[in-house]
Amino acid sequence: MKAIFNHFNSLGGLYNVSQENLLDTRIFNDEIKLIEEYLKRDIPKLLWNILKKYQGHGFNDEVGFNVTTNIPILGNSTFLEFGQFLSLCQEASLYLLDVLENNSDIFGHDFLPFAEATPGDYIALNISEQSVYFISHVFSDNEQSQIKIANSLKDYFLHLCKHTEENRILEKTPRITSVEYSNDLLSLMQKWKNKETSNKER
């Protein structure tokens, strides 16, 4: 836990998005119990501690996670923004239990969202796997709504990073995504390959 808290501080710390997010310990514990009853599972201790300290908080700087899996909504970018931790306060706009219940078709009882990423999309823990997923609410028929981005909560939190100018430049740099060869070029390549094969056989 200490390593994660120290890492968060190194990223510029967090702030309480709204005074509505202020909870005493009794109300926090009651909200955790409601979530666990809904999921019919216990919330892992690490996430429990993170939510206890940071529910309803966002980073002071632009912070996110560099994904290695393609996420269509990001376009050319690999930087998945961290919006804010969901709140356990019932009056908050991003009240965790509401997010769970209103998106039961994509979360079910396997995923526990703990943060908003891009607006309307979430970062969630797969409770069975203990891995972290990006959950999108808008996706086409040939796209996944649940994309694994980290093997564990610890891995995810410790690899959060600031969105640097270097990241932005890389995102604007055109990337080759597919290559097509003309028939003439393919024919030349085949002739060269045949010639090389013939030479090796001599």
Automatic annotation (TrEMBL):
InterPro entries: Knr4/Smi1-like_dom, Knr4/Smi1-like_sf
Stretches that traverse the bilayer: none
Top-level division of the source organism's lineage: Bacteria
Pfam families reported for this sequence: SMI1_KNR4 (PF09346)
Domain Knr4/Smi1-like: 30-157
Protein name: Cell wall assembly protein
Biological source species: Bacteroides acidifaciens
Lineage, highest ranks first: Bacteria, Pseudomonadati, Bacteroidota, Bacteroidia, Bacteroidales
